[in-house]
Amino acid sequence: MEDLCTQPLTGPAACISERAGSVMTAGKSKSGIHCSDDSLAGAVSQRACVFCGARVVLNPVTDAVHLVHGPIGCATYTWDIRGSLSSGPEMYRNSFSTDMKERDVVFGGEKKLAACIDEIVEKYHPPAIFVYATCVTGMIGDDIIAVSKAARSRHGIDVIPVESSGFISGNKVVGYRAAALALMQLITPKDGETVAPTRDLNFLGEYNLGGETWLIKRYLKEMGIGINVAFTGDSTVAALKRAPGACLNLVQCTGSMHWVALQLEKTFGTPFMDINFFGAENTAESLRKIARFYNDPTITARTEALIEREMTRIRPVIKRYREKLAGKRAAIYVGGAYKAIAIIRQLRELGMEIVLTGTQTGNKEEYAEISSLLDENAIVVDDTNPAEIERFLLEMKVDVMAGGVKERVLAYKLGVGFVDHNHDRKECLAGFDGAVRFAKEVYLTTCTPVWKYTTGTFPGRT
Amino acid sequence: MSHNTAKQVNENQCQQCMPLGGVIAFKGIENAMVLVHGSQGCSTYMRLVNVEHYNEPVDIASSSLNEKQTIYGGEANLKKAIDNVLRVYQPGVLGVVTTCLAETMGEDLDRIVADYRKERGETGIDIIPVPTPSYSGSQTEGFWAATRAIIARYARATEKHDRINVIVPHISPADIREIRRLLDLMGCAYTLIPDYSLTLDRPAGGKYQKIPLGGTRTEDIARMPGAPLTIQFGETCPDELSPGRWLEQQFNVPLVNLPLPTGVEATDRFLLALQEFTGRPLPEALALERGWLLDGMADAHKYNAEGRAAIYGEPELVYAVVRLCAENGIAPAVIASGTRTSRLAACLEPVIANLDERPELLEETDFATIEAASLRAAVNLAIGHSGGKFFTERHGIPVVRMGFPIHDRIGGQRILIVGYAGSLSFLDRLTNSLLEAKYATYRERIRHQMGITGGI
């Protein structure tokens, strides 16, 4: 069989011919990229599953119980998976599973699910339980909606089914929708309930990784604006239920939350705006955009003062890193397009050349935007795999890559620096301080003395 | 000993899923690639947990089943997946492990693979299917089942020779290397399976290989039936999954089932078994290492006697560590595994029979149960994988990390617990964890006990 991987890279080419349409060259490809499709079997996609998408969106709800209805693995692999921080409850850091066995698969798992819910309520009295469907429970047709409904009336708490059977798609975006539906079910006021309107805003698609929600909250507070609740970083069930009271919804991770913002607008009339706090320029722009919405001279003055102060503080630091990094070649492969776009901009601010950008879940419009941002001949790739990444990193002489855990180990093997920009990172990369942290990480991994040794050989005879 | 049977919910998992064990076993075979027949997420999760533990790229393909195939069958996707894996990776061996989804769908893997061979003709690779639905077992069963299936695929009646078979459980690459060093020092020729000592811990340097160099060679596996002896570190492995038992039943290769060589007794037993076979004396290098271990045990025994440990993880590792604790006077107060095996309790019985205190044994358990039992038993040390991080976070109890997975520390692939030297370095880690806690707290503790609040 042909081995495309060993052929020299002349223009963008995938290792498997069927993937050729998923790789394009910025400024050259006329037809646009093939994306938003199921992963090709055997291609070793870096994507996860619907269940994973749903769980990463909902898991930061700190006081909820997350109960995975299925065999053990799904719960094991998503236990405490995000670096989301909490200001109080720690319940979300546990992983509950109905631990289905062969008998449950044959005879159905509904009774076991109900028993598990009862046990959890008796032991912890949580305000809400999210019940996640997995491949097997979807396949055998367990009715998690009915079981959840019965448990809700039995215990008087929110028991929310999340329809996240993994096989529906390998695309996490489908899981984001399942999570979004669950969130809407949680926050929609029940008959007779009302939520008082406020001048505070909701912050959607923000997961408080490394305390990022808290940092932005501090900025907004200084401007004179309060955060009602974040979706879902450091949120509680009670705080989420107050979501309809916000006067504005900010949307950061558009992949997970754009649809929720639309629903909130439709249901409660709350306007929304896309913002992005990754990178100093993005942060400044986003803060100004928010200030404009409030249309209050005091807020505007405070915002400008904040931006001026922070930019003055970080500019010389960024400049120092820029001097070290200018002209280095960077690659990006991340889950969602909004993040890719933000990283492109940040790497540019550091004077770097971006030679490769890819995402797991981008759509056609997002890829068009990405390629418009890139220099000609940069490669854009959807749903790539280790063989392609290896080839791109080597042949395009990449110095540093931004991505997730699976890409990190491959980059290191190839002597390429790496910046973790995934959901299990422990560092704050948002806001002005995050921009400094990002620049520092890019610098320390690109310019580490280690690569000199790992790519060298024994100086004597071998 | 007690089992908690009434509880339904599993709160914080102590085990991984069954196909993961199968994947590890295949990674120990030369020029092998592995494919998970199921939805995309399964392979990605297994890659993630392996990548974090081994700090290596661990490529695992998926048949990426979606809704349509789930209804109409995954055959076409599986065949396409095999095609693509062969194209990109060009393996000599392709392990195909199943998932909960594929098994629930009732996929007939043997037939699909047979059809594939018929349709594609001679592809030059061996495709080895192994059913590993997670609702039937944990990674431990998956590991043994795949190892056994690999041996069964290649083993041929062959002339008698003097290479012994060595079958290892799910241990670290460093442990495999140490077992190999002991075998080399004892002058034994051997076939060790599965040998992922290089494939899951590859040294830097040279051209990057999609399938890393190393692993047990299939031509060596084929000759395993002619071996004079099988040594299997799998006392807790049930017979129906046991690769060594299979070789004994099919080809009359005598099986010596041993505990992992952790601690002086178990290492003695391993080397004694080799000595009986080779007739050679213990090499000076190993006699020295044994002496250093004993000297270290004497130096540390009073500190160790203050240790009350919770030991958790895969059965064979738990068994090995309990033995090490018992011979050093560390009380194995809680012994726990996410896996249930018919053999662990019986293996442990002679080790714990004469202890001052009866340990609590928890099988097929979760961390909520382990945590509660450990607090009741007032443990001051936990030994096991990263899942036990809450021991420290919530209760200030140190965790000495060993086993799989290690995702919150670096170097999971290098954790060594076997051999005289490995046992000593591991024992030092246990003792020093106790000492670290002691030195951090003893002044305050004694002040408090004596009611001292200010100067006298």
Please tell me the total number of domains of chain A.
3
Share of helix among residues of chain A? 40-55%
Count of discrete alpha- or pi-helical segments spanning 4 or more residues of chain B = 17
- Gyration radius of chain A, to the nearest Å? 23 Å
Output the strand order for the largest sheet of chain B. 12-11-10-13-14
How many strand segments of chain A? 14
Structural class of chain B: alpha/beta
Overall spatial form of chain A: globular
The name CATH uses for the topology of the largest domain in chain A is Rossmann fold
Strand content of chain B: 5-15%
CATH architecture of the largest domain in chain A: 3-Layer(aba) Sandwich
CATH class division of the largest domain in chain A: Alpha Beta
Which strand order does the major sheet of chain A show? 1-12-11-10-13-14
Biggest sheet details of chain A = 6 strands, mixed
Write the CATH fold name of the largest domain in chain B.
Rossmann fold
What can you tell me about this protein's structure?
The complex is a heterodimer of chains A (462) and B (456). By secondary structure, chain A is of the alpha/beta class. Chain A folds into three domains: 4-34 and 326-426, 3-Layer(aba) Sandwich (Rossmann fold), CATH 3.40.50.1980; 50-187, Rossmann fold (3-Layer(aba) Sandwich), CATH 3.40.50.1980; 201-304, Nitrogenase molybdenum iron protein domain (Rossmann fold). Chain A has 18 helices and 14 strands. In chain A, the strands form three sheets. A six-stranded mixed beta sheet of chain A has the order 1-12-11-10-13-14, with helices on both faces. In chain A, strands 3-2-4-5 form a four-stranded parallel beta sheet, with helices on both faces. A four-stranded parallel beta sheet of chain A has the order 7-6-8-9, with helices on both faces. The longest helix of chain A is centred in the C-terminal third of the chain and has 29 residues, at 297-325. The two termini of chain A are 36 Å apart. The termini of chain B are far apart. In chain B, α1 packs across α7. Chain B is of the alpha/beta class and 456 residues long. In chain B, β10 (308-312), α13 and β11 form a beta-alpha-beta unit. At the A-B interface, α1, α2, β3, α3 and α4 of A face β1, α1, α2, β3 and α3 of B.
